[in-house]
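Lecture notes, part 5. Sequence design as translation. It can be helpful to think of inverse folding as translation between two languages: the language of shapes and the language of residues. The source text, in structure tokens, appears below.
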């Protein structure tokens, strides 16, 4: 992509409405635009990152055996009346009436709809386990939408729903998602800690919020410091191994970790003082085992091996990609801008042509751009006729992990500079070596 053609509406001034750094940087870097309160457009730079986040979420869901579907954003009120949640959900639900005066709503979540899909087709335990997920926009009329896409009214969610015959099987499905979440957040460059979460009226100890530690987080959290260094389950994890996944779960829940709603002061105080971590956090994911909460009222049953009908055991598992983008920025930035982890960077490399119009520099920059693009890299080529300082500032602001800097003096010797955005380290090397290193 040539920067001269790329729609990148960078802001020079710090936007006044932005209270936290990620919101400021997303606006300054031209990633998002607010359309109305808590409702955003994603501009090209932002869309690239959002897509990369979704790709990783999707890969790990698929690895764990979940299957992708796509349910609509609009739902009928009837489904929610069946489950009993239509009246309970309250003002967060955006209720709409269509031209036939039919009560509709913009889905804040999809338990009812997926249960309806399930009950329409699945009749036997032989078709279980089943886990269906989608990545779809949700709407919640938040009381206080704020911090840009961190807490917006319209937001993207990956929500998965598992169906099993027995509670035991459902716990295995839960452990699959638990493990997939550890891997997902790690691949996004985040350290997310699973914390015991409130299960509400359903009870049981099977709900975890995945929280990343950040000063600007809205939740108050308490946990054992060792979580910061726990190992992440490997690529080779066998998701069919019941014991294997249970031991991952046991390890990651062996130490104290809770949000303020679930906080047990006595248990926390029992941790040696130096190991106690009391901090603020951002909820980036939430998983839930809720048994027959929806299958019972909605009549989602399967025939078991005993020939009898059983209400299916369910769980649901949410991740917020549009919240993860600012969460990653909160965790990774400096005074000059964003520092993307390579896994979600909008571009892998930016080639900075320091003297557009100089035949040798143009040729060398163009060659690097082409070679890296041909090697399958996402390359941004800063071919604008701009001051070097402005180019450096843009490259730093948008946080591309590697910068290749081509200027007349270096190119005269066949050399460019390679700068690492995270460390700030710069090395001079030949054009060929730079291509080889990055390709
Ligand atoms: P919160 O406590 O922040 O209001 P929640 O507990 O209501 O979130 P869940 O119903 O657990 O959210 O939804 C699953 C995930 O969806 C959350 O963990 C979060 O990543 C994302 N999410 C929820 N609400 C929002 C929002 N308003 N804006 C962006 N992402 C959201
Ligand atoms: Mg909420
Ligand atoms: Mg919450
Ligand atoms: Mg939650």
């Amino acid at each position: 992509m040539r920067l001269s053609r790329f729609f990148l509406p960078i802001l020079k001034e710090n936007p006044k409405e932005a209270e936290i750094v990620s919101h400021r940087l997303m606006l300054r870097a031209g990633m998002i635009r607010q359309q109305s309160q808590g409702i955003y457009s994603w501009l090209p730079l932002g869309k690239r990152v959002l897509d990369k986040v979704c790709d990783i979420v999707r890969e790990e869901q698929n690895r764990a055996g979940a299957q992708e579907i796509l349910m609509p954003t609009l739902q009928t009120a009837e489904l929610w009346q069946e489950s009993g949640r239509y009246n309970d959900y309250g003002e967060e639900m955006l209720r709409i009436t269509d031209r036939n005066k039919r009560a509709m709503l913009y889905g804040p979540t999809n338990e009812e709809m997926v249960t309806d899909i399930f009950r329409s087709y699945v009749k036997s335990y032989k078709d279980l386990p089943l886990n269906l997920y989608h990545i779809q926009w949700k709407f919640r009329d938040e009381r206080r939408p704020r911090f840009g896409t961190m807490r917006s009214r319209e937001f993207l969610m990956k929500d998965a729903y598992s169906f099993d015959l027995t509670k035991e099987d459902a716990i295995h499905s839960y452990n699959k998602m638990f493990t997939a979440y550890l891997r997902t957040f790690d691949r996004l460059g985040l350290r997310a800690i699973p914390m015991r979460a409130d299960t509400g009226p359903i009870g049981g100890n099977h709900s975890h919020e995945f929280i990343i530690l950040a000063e600007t987080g809205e939740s108050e959290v308490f946990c054992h410091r060792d979580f910061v260094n726990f190992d992440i389950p490997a690529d080779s994890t066998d998701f069919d191994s019941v014991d294997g996944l249970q031991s991952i779960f046991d390890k990651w829940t062996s130490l104290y970790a809770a949000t303020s709603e679930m906080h047990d002061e006595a248990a926390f105080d029992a941790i040696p003082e130096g190991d106690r971590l009391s901090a603020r956090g951002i909820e980036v994911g939430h998983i839930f085992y809720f048994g027959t909460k929806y299958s019972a009222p909605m009549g989602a049953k399967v025939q078991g091996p005993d020939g009898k009908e059983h209400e299916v055991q369910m769980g649901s598992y949410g991740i917020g990609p549009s919240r993860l983008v600012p969460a990653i920025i909160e965790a990774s930035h400096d005074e000059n801008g964003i520092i993307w982890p390579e896994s979600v960077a909008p571009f892998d490399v930016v080639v900075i042509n320091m003297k557009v119009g100089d035949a040798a520099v143009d040729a060398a920059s163009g060659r690097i751009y082409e070679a890296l693009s041909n090697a399958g890299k996402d390359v941004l080529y800063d071919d604008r006729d701009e001051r070097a300082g402005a180019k450096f500032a843009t490259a730093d602001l948008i946080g591309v992990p590697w910068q290749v800097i081509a200027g007349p003096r270096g190119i005269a010797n066949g050399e460019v500079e390679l700068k690492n955005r995270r460390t700030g380290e710069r090395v001079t090397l030949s054009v060929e070596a730079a291509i080889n290193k990055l390709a």
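The translated text above is only one of many valid answers, since several sequences can fold into similar shapes. The first helix runs from residue 21 to 28.
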